[in-house]
Design brief:
Blueprint (H helix, E strand, L loop, with lengths): L4 H12 L3 E2 L3 E5 L6 E5 L7 E7 L4 E2 L6 H6 L4 H14 L7 H6 L12 H8 L5 H19 L18 H14 E5 L3 E4 L15 E6 L14 H4 L3 E4 L5 E3 L7 E2 L12 E6 L18 H8 L11 E4 H9 L4 H13 L5 E3 L2 E6 L7 H10 L3 H12 L3 H5 L2 E3 L4 E3 L8 H4 L2 H16 L6 H9 L7 H33 L11
Parallel strand pairs: 4-11
Antiparallel strand pairs: 1-4, 2-3, 4-12, 5-7, 6-7, 8-9, 8-12, 9-10, 13-15, 14-15, 16-17
Helix pairs in contact: 3-7, 11-12, 16-18, 17-18
Bound molecules: S-adenosylmethionine.
S-adenosylmethionine (SAM) binds next to β3 and α7.
Length: 503
C-alpha cells in the first residue's frame, strides 16, 4: 500500500512521543490534495477508547521553545500559540515537532488568506464579506502591536523576522483557527497531534476528544487552581474551543485492550460515542455552526447545513423604508420601536436580524416592520399612549388602538401571526429582495448551475463560496415563501394589501 512519506515519519514520531492509537484506525491521505481523513477497519462501539495523547506531545505556549519569549511579551491565547507555532516551524528539523509539522499543511485556505479581489469575487453579499475584511485589518494591527516587537526580545532567543512576517502570522492563524483545541487552563490552546486529523460532521460525530481535567500534569508550576480542574472531572474538548461536560457513557472499553485507559490527567483521550462500522470514516465535531462560520474558520461548507442563517442589517431595513417613507418618518418609527425595548442583534458596528434556516424572521424584525407600516392614525394613538404619564409601565403592557390589537410587550408570548399583516408580509418580501440583490446580478439558479459544474478539489474557494451563497439565498427564498403564503390567504379572504406612503 502506498503511504506518503510525511505520514510514515509522523507515525514514527507519534510512537516516540507516547501517542497511542488502536490498530483499526487508518489515516488516509488524498493523493490529489494531500488532505487526511481517518477511517476504521473494525467495528467501533460507544465507549471505546481509540487514542491517547500525552499533553506534553502537544504544541502549546507552555511546551514550545519560545515559551520564555511569549511569557516575557505577556502574550496568551491565540497570539501566544501563533508565536509558538511560527517559532517551531522556523526551527525546521531542530524542532521536537518537526515530523508533525511536516504532515500539517502550510496553511488552511480559509477566507482570511484570500486576496481582496477573491473576497469581492466570491463572497460579495454573503455574511462573510465584511467580517473577513475587518479581520484582516485587526490581524495587521495585532502583528504590529504584538509580534513585531518580539524581534527585540531580551530573552536571548533570536527570531528571524522572515519567519514571523505578517504572511507567516496569517498562515499560523489559519492553522490555529482550523486545527487547535483548548487543552486545559495551564496549556491553553494547543495543536494536538492525531486529534487534528479527524474531519467534521455536523450533529453526527463518532468520536469525542476528552481530558481528565486536572492540573497535576503541568510540571511543578501550580499557578492554576480552578475548582473544576481540582475536581478531576472528565470534560469534552472540541476544536471550536469550548469545553463541554461528557454526554456519553463513561464505561470506557479499550478496543482489544490495546490502550490503557487511565485517569492520568496528563493524557488526552479519544473516545467513540456511537457505533461506527468497519470501513467508515470516523468523524469529530467542531461544533454546531452554519456554513458562514464553517467557511470562516475551517475553510469548508456542508450542503444542507441546519445551522445556516442569513442576517438582515437594520441599515438595509432603513434603505427599504427610505424607498417608501421620508427619513423623518423612518427615524421616528425606529425610535418608537426602540422605546418598546426592541433591538436587533448587535455586532461590532452593526445591528441586524437573523433569519433562521427555515426562513423564519426574528420577532424583533416583525415588530419593527409592523410599527413601520402602521397608519398615521394608529401610530398616533400608540404614541399618545406611550407619552401619557405612567405610560412606560402601561404601554409595555397591551398596546391597543382602534384597529391595532397586538401585544407589543417584549418578553411576552406574542403571536407572530398577529404581526403578519399584509403590509408586514409585503415589507418582508421587499426586504428579502433587497438583501438578495447584494449577491449581484447572478440569479440563484445561475449559482446552482455553476456549483454543479465546479470541481470540489481544484476550485475549492469557488465551490465553498457557492455553497454558502446558495444556502443563504435559499433561506431568503424561504423567507419570501413564508411571507407570501399568508399574503395569498389574506387576499383570497378579500383583504387588500395596501402600500403605505406617508410623507
Ligand atoms: C482538523 S483538520 C482535519 C484534518 C484535515 N482533513 C487534514 O487534512 O489534516 C480541519 C480541516 O479539515 C478539512 N475538513 C474537515 N472536515 C471537513 C468536511 N466535512 N468537509 C471538507 N473539509 C473538511 C478542512 O480543511 C478543515 O480546515
Amino acid at each position: 500500500m502506498y503511504i506518503p512519506r510525511p505520514m510514515r515519519a509522523f507515525k514514527r514520531w507519534m510512537k516516540l512521543h507516547g501517542i497511542n492509537y488502536i490498530d483499526a484506525l487508518r489515516f488516509i491521505q488524498n493523493e490529489e490534495n494531500d488532505a487526511v481523513w481517518v477511517k476504521t477497519v473494525a467495528d467501533l462501539h460507544q465507549g471505546d477508547l481509540v487514542a491517547t495523547i500525552p499533553k506534553q506531545s502537544c504544541l502549546t505556549m507552555k511546551t514550545s521553545g519560545a515559551r520564555h519569549v511569549i511569557e516575557e511579551a505577556g502574550l496568551d491565547g491565540y497570539l501566544g500559540l501563533s508565536v509558538a507555532l511560527m517559532y517551531e516551524k522556523s526551527l525546521g528539523p531542530d524542532s521536537p515537532w518537526f515530523a508533525y509539522l511536516q504532515l500539517m499543511p502550510q496553511f488552511e485556505p480559509i477566507p482570511l488568506l484570500w486576496s481582496f479581489d477573491e473576497l469581492d469575487l466570491f463572497l460579495s453579499g454573503t455574511e462573510l464579506h465584511k467580517i473577513v475584511k475587518e479581520d484582516r485589518a485587526l490581524i495587521n494591527e495585532d502583528w504590529k502591536e504584538c509580534i513585531s516587537p518580539l524581534f527585540d526580545s531580551a530573552t536571548g532567543v533570536k527570531l528571524n523576522p522572515d519567519d514571523f512576517s505578517v504572511e507567516q502570522y496569517l498562515m499560523a492563524k489559519s492553522l490555529i483557527a482550523s486545527r487547535s483545541f483548548e487543552i486545559d487552563d495551564y496549556h491553553g490552546f494547543g495543536m494536538v497531534p492525531l486529534a487534528d486529523l479527524f474531519n467534521h460532521k455536523t450533529d453526527a460525530e463518532d468520536v469525542h476528544f476528552t481530558s481528565v481535567a486536572s492540573h497535576s500534569d503541568s510540571e511543578e508550576d501550580s499557578e492554576i487552581s480552578d475548582d473544576s480542574e481540582k475536581s478531576g472531572n472528565d470534560s469534552q474538548i472540541s476544536n471550536n474551543g469550548s469545553d463541554k461536560k461528557n454526554t456519553y457513557e463513561s464505561n470506557i472499553n479499550d478496543v482489544g485492550s490495546e490502550l490503557n485507559n487511565s485517569d492520568d490527567p496528563a493524557v488526552l483521550q479519544m473516545i467513540i460515542v456511537k457505533e461506527v462500522e468497519a470501513g467508515a470514516e470516523v468523524f469529530n465535531t467542531y461544533g454546531s455552526m452554519g456554513n458562514a462560520a464553517l467557511l470562516h474558520r475551517y475553510g469548508f461548507t456542508e450542503p444542507e447545513n441546519p445551522y445556516d442563517i442569513v442576517n438582515i442589517d437594520l441599515e438595509l431595513v432603513l434603505r427599504w423604508s427610505s424607498s417608501l417613507y421620508s427619513s423623518r418618518y423612518s427615524r421616528s418609527r425606529v425610535a418608537f420601536w426602540k422605546k418598546l425595548d426592541y433591538s436587533g442583534c448587535l455586532a461590532q458596528n452593526s445591528e441586524y436580524f437573523e433569519i433562521s434556516s427555515d426562513g423564519k424572521p426574528e420577532i424583533e424584525l416583525l415588530v419593527l416592520l409592523f410599527v413601520m407600516s402602521l397608519s398615521e392614525d394608529d401610530y398616533g394613538d400608540l404614541s399618545l399612549q406611550l407619552s401619557s404619564p405612567g405610560a412606560c409601565n402601561k404601554l409595555t403592557g397591551t398596546v391597543l388602538s382602534k384597529k391595532v390589537h397586538v401585544i407589543l410587550e417584549k418578553g411576552k408570548e406574542m403571536s407572530k401571526n398577529a404581526l403578519l399583516t399584509n403590509a408586514v408580509r409585503s415589507a418582508l418580501i421587499e426586504v428579502a429582495d433587497l438583501r438578495d440583490r447584494l449577491y449581484g446580478s447572478r440569479s440563484l439558479e445561475d449559482d446552482i448551475k455553476e456549483l454543479s459544474e465546479c470541481c470540489f478539489v481544484k476550485e475549492r474557494k469557488l465551490y465553498h463560496s457557492l455553497v454558502l451563497r446558495i444556502s443563504e439565498r435559499r433561506i431568503l427564498q424561504k423567507l419570501r415563501a413564508y411571507a407570501s403564503s399568508g399574503l395569498l390567504r389574506n387576499c383570497a379572504r378579500g383583504t387588500k394589501t395596501k402600500k403605505l406612503k406617508v410623507i
